[in-house]
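Annex B.
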Amino acid sequence: MSLQEKVQTVAQEFQMLQADMAKVVEAREKLGTQQSENELVKKEFAKLTPSNAVYKLIGPVLVKQDQAEAKSNVNTRLDFIKGEIKRVEAQIQDIEAKSEQKKREFAAAQTALQQQQQNLEATTTA
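Prefoldin beta-like protein: predicted structure tokens.
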């Protein structure tokens, strides 16, 4: 593989990593929104008395739901979301590390290519 091809390959790999990063960051933002919404629901549930009714929207219909079950569902959902946030943040760190590595590879390949071109120019003018 020539240095020119190596520079192009590394640049493409870096662009792919940046696209992956954009997707993962978007997923993290959605998870953050879901977490906020569920935290709000949990706070509202804390205000309920045992006599309050809780309804769940299923399609176009409101179905009465047991308060304890509803609270349990929200807590389970929050635990799941927190786990997903940890997983996505680990992906973000991994992609950042890979991106930094690709930046270094790109810089090294570009420098080598420039030196090769300078050496070529020096030998043709001499």
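The domain at 3-119 is CATH 1.10.287.370 (Helix Hairpins). The chain has one domain: 3-119. Further annotation is deferred to the next reporting cycle.
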